[in-house]
Amino acid sequence: MIEEKVYLPKELSWLSFNQRVLQEAADKSNPLIERVRFLGIYSSNLDEFYKVQFANLKKYVLIEQEQVHSSSNAKSLLRQVNQKVIQLELQFDQLYNELLLEMARNQIFLINERQLSAYQENWIKNYYKQNLRQYITPILLDSHTELIQFLKDDHAYLAVEIVCENNISYALLELPTDNVSRFVLLPSEVSTKNKCIIFLDNILRYCLSDIFKVFFDAKELNAYSININRDAEYELNTELDSLLELMSQGLKQRLTAQPVRFTYQKDMPKALFELLINKLRLTEQDTMPGGRYPNFKDLVKFPDLGQKNLLNKKIPNLSYTRFKQFRNAFDTIKDRDVLLYYPYYSFGHVLEIMRQASFDPSVTHIRMNIYRVAKDSRFIHAAINAANNGKKVTVVVELQARFDEEANIKWAKRLISSGIKVIYSQPKLKIHAKLFLIDRKERDQIVRYAHIGSGNFNERTATIYTDFSLLTADPAITDEVKKVFNFIENPFKPVSFNHLLVSPQNTRLRFYEFIEREINNAKAGKAAGIYLKLNAITDKDMIDQLYRASCAGVKVRMVVRGTCVLIPQIPNLSENITVTSIVDQFLEHARVYIFENDGKKDTYISSADWMPRNIDNRIEVGVKIFDPIIKSTIHNIFDIQCNDNVKARIIDKDAANNYVQRGNKKKIRAQYAIYDYLKQSESFEKGL
Fold this sequence. Notes:
It is globular and about 85 Å long. It is an alpha/beta fold. Helix 13 (405-417) links the parallel strand 12 (392-397) and strand 13.
């Protein structure tokens, strides 16, 4: 056993990941508007961090305060987190100002309400009347205002000081970003290549008089930006009749949950600041001063302005050649397993399979599970069309998918109204697996076709997330996928799996067995190694096993996008472990596990990261890859990622996020190199 366990706090590791996102905004090799959008990704990530991880950390601090003999570990960590956030926010502000200058060099100007020409002033007044006024309803702040009840999480507001002759009043304006863009392109009265953009915030600042003059004779109107982040967790009252009721109750709790961060414009008058924090039941320690724009997440949607040189080059989707060589998708899959890797391959292939299944006379039953789907999901529409064609359809809807609960409740109701059997997970046991199973009657027998993947059935995110999809008709796998659906319906009924890794049934035990085998092989002088592609690794028991493997001489190579609690390269503990992280144009989302097994290389793709929740508290599915061509493809992709020397950062105890040094080696940018590799593979397939 390991006497000394060494881990990096997961909160600090997560912030280190978000620092890598900031590095992308700073990287001058990235096109300008993409750099601006990385600032938006950073801001959105930080909001989620406060709503989840920071909120939980504050709870631990409160628990420690109630304990007589407390070591104050949580309080110390909270201080470190706050210091790190302040450091990152300073970097953000510096980068934002640098990018403003860079945009100006490219004739793009972000202007405020004080920089408008007379022509633009008139245009904005008309824009407000025609496009904004219907969405603007001020909330007057008085002694009766229950601010904590209605102030929306993650929304930007202007707190307005209304100075009249004999008194000062206060009001709130919500920025209607759900209805209109945060960025408005202003017209110019003369022909020019300059493009002027104004924040929605500043349009409202300019129009304050038009908003308030109907009731207030104000001498002065001043607006200050604010926003809050609320605790995203909720408690489920299991006495309610249905999970739909449970989730509806939980969402209401989130809407009124205690704020965990209040960001405000730092030059706000003290009286207004104190009024707001008192109504939100916060202390000054719960607040964070900022500038005129406390919420920058909308920078993700910064307009492209038609200037292609300021954007990433579009990588055209590859078409999977073998689908064209057979009459339908089922014949293709039956001939040989199919591996798709998004966004290099089009997600349209999976949508086409579901479309064909929805009207194929031979298809009798479609089972699928959804976690996060697109707003107007073609995947779900195919399920509804299948039901309309008389097929049996079963859909597992995960109502507890964080921040997608409300959308999934609506989908569940829509599916039920279409005559589809809808199944929900047990409270606090999320279903994160990415499965569908199609039963097809062929020559009086039922042949099943299965999908096991690492990503959601979401045509929007499939264009920006890297994910694997395995499509197979192998009975050894499809029979077990059917057992997973049975397990979802009856989670307390005993079940076993041979070819699938199914959390919380067998995943942890199988991992322990695989790692132990590598340790024994290393001791016996056989080929041994562990190769992992993950989004996060925080499970300390699994990390201990990897430390044991390292001490036994097993080489462990990992590519981890986000949180990595494991600390590599510690002498006599993790010196045989190397970890890098890739942050680039696409969000790395695929999970791959490869165990050397004396040269046989057992290979799995999965929906599960190495976190306690994924291994013990969710239904996750990983599948062993048997097809030798697909195994080779996965190994080659992993090797390319391990050799990235453009966008890969070194993960170490210092969390410095140093880039992998290229030296005199050939430049390898993994995401582009993988596209070239797959494109070449498809060209070879066409030539056969």
